[in-house]
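Sorry to interrupt, but I need a hand with the structure work. Could you write out one complete protein record for me, on any chain you like? Just paste the record in under my message, thanks.

. . .
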Amino acid sequence: MRGRLDRPPAAPATRRGGRRSSSGSDRGAAAIELAIILPIMLVMIFGVIDFGRLISAQATLSDAAREGARALAFNQDATLRAQKVTGTTGTTVTASVPCPTSGSTAASTATVTVSQTFTYLTPILTLLGGSGTTKTITATGVMPCLG
């Protein structure tokens, strides 16, 4: 008859998930993994932030160009309207010749091009081989002349 003392020896002590308890060779593995992953994660996070800001600035510039062209189509000041939309005076606005006030305006269009210098928050592009920390973004708006 076999008693309790006749059982085979138990397996070594393990943690949840079947991993053995840490030995001396596993010490510091989490710190090394963090040191490898953290820079990659930071580059990704800052890249997403800068890209989001760039998309927002481009959308604002498109709105400004459209509003400037609309103002020019009604013979108003396109530069003032475009700068009001962007909220800055550092915006460069190029407008076509104002719409004619008399005669046929059917083929005439008002064109406004708005450009602005965008500055990145982080030098991510220079780390990835890009050039500079600024980018010139432009948008163009075209409207038919309405007199």
The beta strands are 92-95, 109-119, 134-144.
